[in-house]
Design a protein that fits this description.
three-stranded antiparallel β-sheet; 10 helices; 2 domains; mainly alpha; about 65% helix
Length: about 250
């Protein structure tokens, strides 16, 4: 049995079904605050403080924190409680390499096995992502993140390995933390890229069943965030990888 089968809350997001229990609700709220940087990397997670903020009991909060361990977003410190998992450039490079390896192979397999339903799912996901990226009045970050995740999931949805999909869901959340860092750094020194063009290249190759071209486009897309952050740190070694956030802990 996969961890996802035992507790499927990691698949929940604000655009899906609402959490069914207080533990799931606390889990999702904590996960979002960790991914966005509201709970800073390395921050100690004090149950006595957080239970009031998330409006749950101490026991419920501890259960949610324990579940976040399986997502590698929280680390346990023995009897001293929990901390938000630290981030670093080396960690991002490892996440990126592993994600490229798993996700490009999953895309290849999905293209080979995908049927008409896969084709329809991918077209619908790309259409929603395109709307989010081209909306007049500016990009809604939450809408874009939901659409982006749905697009990446649609790309590999015909792959037959539940374990691969589960591991990629964890890696996606880890990569999402670094995207938030890239966005914050980009607000000060724009990190130039055309994300919609990247997604279009992936979609067009995948829908045309050109698996080698699609895999190369996906690899370049995943790798670029890592390359841009590495360049930002190289240009200014004093630039913190994780700028200060509204820390709750």
């Amino acid at each position: 049995m996969l961890p996802a089968d035992r507790f499927p809350a990691h698949r929940l997001s604000s655009d899906s079904q609402p959490p069914r229990t207080l533990v799931e609700r606390a889990y999702l709220a904590l996960r979002q605050d960790i991914v966005s940087g509201t709970l800073a990397p390395g921050a100690r997670l004090r149950v006595e403080h957080l239970k009031d903020h998330y409006e749950v009991g101490a026991g419920t909060l501890r259960e949610a924190l324990a579940l976040l361990l399986s997502d590698a977003l929280v680390v346990a410190e023995g009897q001293r409680g929990f901390r938000v998992t630290p981030i670093s450039l080396a960690d991002l490079e490892d996440i990126t390499a592993t994600r490229v390896m798993l996700e490009t192979d999953a895309l290849r397999q999905s293209i080979r096995h995908g049927d008409g339903d896969w084709d329809a799912r991918l077209r619908a996901a790309f259409e929603q992502l395109s709307l989010a990226e081209q909306r007049r009045g500016g990009l809604d970050p939450l809408e874009w993140e939901q659409a982006n995740k749905a697009f990446h999931e649609a790309l590999i949805s015909a792959h037959r390995s539940p374990w691969t999909k589960y591991l990629l869901s964890i890696l996606y959340r880890q990569a999402e933390r670094y995207r938030h860092v890239a966005i914050r750094l980009g607000a000060r020194a724009p990190l130039h890229r055309d994300v919609h063009r990247e997604h279009t290249d992936i979609f067009q190759a995948a829908i045309a069943r050109q698996e080698a071209r699609a895999a190369l486009a996906l690899e370049a897309h995943i790798q670029l965030t890592c390359d841009l952050l590495r360049q930002a740190v190289r240009d200014d070694p004093l630039t913190p990888l994780t700028p200060p956030q509204g820390q709750i802990a």
